Amino acid sequence: MRTAYHEELARFHDRLGDLAGLAEGAIRQATQAVLDNDIDAARKLSAEEETISRLHRLLDADAVTLIARQQPVASELRTIVAGLRMSGDLDRMGALARHIAEIVQRRHPRAVVPEPLRALVAEMGETAQRMAAMARAAMASRDPAAAAELDRQDNEMDRLETTLAQRVIECTPPVEPATAMDLALIGRFYERFGDHAVALAARVAYLVGPVQEDLTV
Amino acid sequence: MRTAYHEELARFHDRLGDLAGLAEGAIRQATQAVLDNDIDAARKLSAEEETISRLHRLLDADAVTLIARQQPVASELRTIVAGLRMSGDLDRMGALARHIAEIVQRRHPRAVVPEPLRALVAEMGETAQRMAAMARAAMASRDPAAAAELDRQDNEMDRLETTLAQRVIECTPPVEPATAMDLALIGRFYERFGDHAVALAARVAYLVGPVQEDLTV
């Protein structure tokens, strides 16, 4: 019975790893779509996000079934509840990547990013993808040290969002209001994507840290 | 033992109700801050959101303690896990209200909303507050019918966000890029606030609905 349970627990963690890989791939594709005005990549991403959502719902079901059937001990319960939260973060990361792709679809055939801001948006995309990769690695290796590094990356992401807003405001000739709105949202979506990567690493650090009585996640 | 447990469960639900009341109050204050360019209301809201976050963390701790100590039966587990999700929704609603207030603080003393768009933003604020009130009432009365009505309100909110974007684009003379960016974000924050109210009502409907084997929330 406990062996079957541990197999289920292992499958739960495997699925979580798969989900992290998908979120990382999604933000890479979203950045490609927005920089290259690649409508096919944008459309493909909208379809792929369905896969992420489905996996998220499966993980939710897995977690609750594990708790209900197996009466896990405290440390296992802690892992499962943290896993539920991680699954929620990864689902949102997929949705944020899709939101970026949707802006590309809405504005097509016009490009979303004016040429002078292209390098900055590319840097936000690279930072987001790097943060997702780091969070995924931290989840796989249970490395609590990743949380501090992800905090630093997140400060960098916040700085990039502020810089993007500043550059949009300073553009001459002024950018059109529609472009300004798109860029505000794209900056926001990357920044939120980064926040969720930080949350993932913090949950890993929490899991690896000393066991606390209240199991707060 | 079970009596103490049911008292804890009742306290958990009371706290969830308090949290819903705070989220509703927060969006009302945020709308006042943005429409009246009321810097004091904006600052006050930033402080109050701390209370929401603290209550959210308490609820998380309560939920996990309830599960760990009491080995709840399936229907109770379902309620507690749904409560965890609801607490997460309400915490985000508080954060979204704060984000609106932060834009007011950032642009002060300049007003964020140009006069011709004031009525539209007021309507978004009223819709958001109404949705929060409906979600709170549905949680208190366990009314599964609220989910359908909140879906309708959410369609209205989506329409308002699209209209706001359209009106920003069509303004003559054109709005400044900074104003366009602020309004894109404000529209987005109201729309996301509405999404979470919908999620709350859907979780109530799920809880009241027929018990399912997998307990998916």
From TrEMBL, chains A, B:
Keywords: Cytoplasm, Phosphate transport, Transport. Pfam families: PhoU. Gene3D superfamilies: Phosphate transport system protein phou homolog 2, domain 2. Coiled coil: none annotated. Residues 18-104, 122-204 form the PhoU domain. InterPro entries: PhoU (IPR028366), PhoU-like_sf (IPR038078), PhoU_dom (IPR026022). Homodimer. Plays a role in the regulation of phosphate uptake. Belongs to the PhoU family. This is Phosphate-specific transport system accessory protein PhoU. It comes from Amycolatopsis acididurans. The lineage of its organism: Bacteria, Bacillati, Actinomycetota, Actinomycetes, Pseudonocardiales.
